[in-house]
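Margin note from the TA: students keep mixing up input and output lines. Inputs are the sequences; the output is the structure of the whole complex. Example:
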Amino acid sequence: MSKLTTLKLQHFRNIDQACLEFSDGLNLIVGDNAAGKTAIIEALWTLASGRSFRTAKPQQLIQFEHPELVIFCQLIEQQQTLNLGLSRHADQVTLKCNGETLKTQAEMSAHLPLQLLTPESHRLLEEGPKARRQFMDWGCFHQFKAFLPAWRQYQRVLKQRNHALKKQLPDQQIQLWDEPLIEAAGKIDEMRSDYIEQLTPFVKEFCQALMPELKATLSCQYLAGWPKTINAKAVDGFTDVIQQQFAKDRLNGHTQYGSHRADIKFKFGGQEAMLTLSRGQQKLFVCALLLAQACLYQNTSHHSVIMLIDDLPAELDAHHRTTLLKLLDALDIQHILTSTAENLIPILNPEKTRVWQIEKGSIHQTMPTRPG
Ligand SMILES: Nc1ncnc2c1ncn2[C@@H]1O[C@H](COP(=O)(O)OP(=O)(O)OP(=O)(O)O)[C@@H](O)[C@H]1O
Ligand SMILES: [Mg+2]
């Protein structure tokens, strides 16, 4: 089981210095608007994923008038202590694990299986397929060792093929990339499809726990990123699609179909989730998806995820907040929550709870005020 024990920040957003010693259960950060609550969640997410969920410009994370930010955390993983750190100075990022420099973000991410729920999380259903691909790829990355190399290979080859298409190089020089593209797509497809198949029963279980009122049957349909027919003619897998699409890809100057277009369709009783669920139910459905991932991850890796939830009261009503917190407690998932008021968060297990107050970037631990 992985548990975060400490987070230290220096010059991150409006937080000059902070040190938080976490509990294994509920960690609640309370403060007014603009106090720096989201900044704490954002710092952890930045360490685990290499990017913020709020900005594509990482320099914005560095506190004004300071040259550098530091994010450090300590983690217990299989009874071993890991010290993970990130420092950013303008465009330069250094990642360290137990004092040694890491070459890739993926090495860091593998140690920090974080999941994130924010008031924007329902975008997973609302927006284009990118967020859904990221969702399933999070699971594939943590479950299959072969996923990252296949994904990297696919991205590299796709870039080369698109470059050749854009430059209108001779057919041969474009088709040189077809075989490696098809090979990497085949591997990715197999892992994604396997993952969604394994995940679906867990999603059903957590939908039932969070929304027992929903009677319609849920289906999670994985879409590989290429069609089953082109111009009403059946195609035989991705190899056939690439061949049949060649003239069109040439004309468009890019590869139309492939793993970069994969998606998942969530349906209740045959209707798209987005069309049948209320806004609140959409948020609960995203919670069910994350809990399902957490549970599957726990079953397959014997580690556990750490759940970050920014502004929980904005996400869910009182009854569903309690249901979610009970599920997190029962699954032994460490969780870090933010809220504008402490009394909006039920404290189910005072011995496994820590509370902090944050004010203008300055944070201090307080006693939970309402046990039970
Ligand atoms: N690079 C930076 N340096 C200093 N301060 C910053 C920087 N970037 C953002 N801020 C400030 O940090 C503060 C913290 O914002 P944050 O979004 O974390 O607050 P919050 O507690 O989550 O508020 P809310 O309840 O409104 O969501 C804001 O006042 C913002 O203006
Ligand atoms: Mg916030």
